Amino acid sequence: MIDESRVSFLERLISSPSPSGFEQQVQQVVREEIKQYTDEVRTDVHGNVIAALNPQGTPRVMLTAHGDELGFLIRYIDEQGFLYFAPIGGFDPSTLPGNRVHVHTPSGPILGVIGRSPVHTLSSEDRGKSPKLADLWIDIGATSQEDARKLVPLGSVATRAALLERMQNDTIVSRALDDKSSIFALVETMRRLHEKREALKAGVFFVSAVQEEVGSRGAQTAAFSVDPLIAVAVDVTFTSDHPGTSKKELGDVRLHGGPVLSIGGHINPRVYQLLVKAADEAGIAWQIDPQAARTSTDTDVIQVVRGGVATALVSIPCRYLHTGSEIASLKDIDEVAELLARFVLALDKDTNVIP
Ligand SMILES: [Zn+2]
After folding, report:
1. What average pLDDT score do residues 259-266 get?
2. Where does Zn(2+) 1 bind (predicted)?
3. For the chain, counts of helices (H) and of strands (E)
């Protein structure tokens, strides 16, 4: 199980803002933590953090999750000092009004609120309708354009202010569990591999990738430079265990149900089988996520780097994705970490990934 003392590292990841393209703060936290479990740590020109354990080992395996999160980019400040923004990543606008946000400025974070006209004043037509992003603004309590401009340079970013909190049954809630819960799981995998390094044959490359939410750009270049035979991306995936979802459309994926293993065209069938074997041998219950087309994760771009990479996708079940209250299970996160450690320990120079 995840040690309670480790949860503070997940809290640090979450309290370090990292909208896509602005990941420096979270990557600093990742570098400081991962260096004790790896032999080399470097950061590339995009900001990907790449840390190697046993880099001369065979085969080369890349374990990657994305460190970036959704955010808002401030583009305009009006006469009254309200901030207007462009979304960084895919938001459902109906989840935004009333959210508290932190605007990240040169002198530190400033509290703000996403405003919308009160329901009383909306036309009967607009009531109950999702707002348009262009109709929303951030209110920092400024009294004028000049007042706001002194504090917030254009081009500043903001993130939702929600932080990690605990719920019942090992459940956690926060913004940005997508995908910081996966970064956390992979650092835990690296910690466990480092403890067993005499048994390790593979060269293991941990990647905290940038810019997934805006097109998987970080994972693409990281995969090129790492040049792995095998890559496993870890991300969160939606569940079908709450009202308003259809198991017929989404399959059966539950919170607390264990790691979710994808199968389909983007997944190497032998790597999939090795993951299933590792889970079964460890007695970890797992769930299946058949994906007929793209997975919409970093897996898709990594697969086609260079001459091709034997890719797989392992997901943490997560409710209410891309809201300020994403929910995940510490039990599932622990099992993803354990599954991947066992999977990597079983790899050696004879591992065959040719379908
Ligand atoms: Zn994600």
Report:
1. 96
2. 66, 178, 235
3. 9, 17
Kindly tell me the sign of the dihedral angle through the C-alpha atoms of 66, 68, 71, 77: negative
Annotated binding residue 125: no
Helix, strand, coil percentages (3-state) for the chain, rounded to 5, are: 30, 25, 40
- pLDDT value, residue 135: 87
Count of CB atoms within 10 A of residue 192's CB? 17
Task: Report the distance separating Cα 316 and Cα 238, nearest Å.
Answer: 9
Residue ranges and CATH numbers for the domains of the chain are 4-69+175-345 (3.40.630.10), 71-160 (2.40.30.40)
**Ligand 1 center to 121 CA (angstroms):** 37
Q: Is 235 annotated as a binding residue?
A: yes
Please identify every residue annotated as catalytic. Answer: 212
Measure CA of the first residue to CA of the last residue in the chain; give whole Å: 34
Q: How far is the CA of 145 from the centre of ligand 1 (A)?
A: 35
Residue type, 248: K
Per-residue pLDDT tens for 94-145? 899 999 999 999 999 999 999 987 777 777 777 778 888 888 999 999 999 9
pLDDT for the residue 258: 98
The answer on whether 322 is annotated among ligand-binding residues is yes
Alpha-carbon span 76 to 82, nearest angstrom: 8
Which residue, chain included where needed, has tokens 């995936």? 237
Whole-number Å distance, alpha carbon 311 to ligand 1 midpoint, is 16
151 alpha carbon – ligand 1 mean position (Å):
31
pLDDT at 283 over 90: yes
Sheet holding 326-329, edge to edge: 165-166, 171-174, 326-329
Q: What pLDDT band is residue 287 in, cutting at 50, 70 and 90? A: very high
CA 39 to chain CA centroid, Å, is: 24
66 is in an annotated binding site: yes
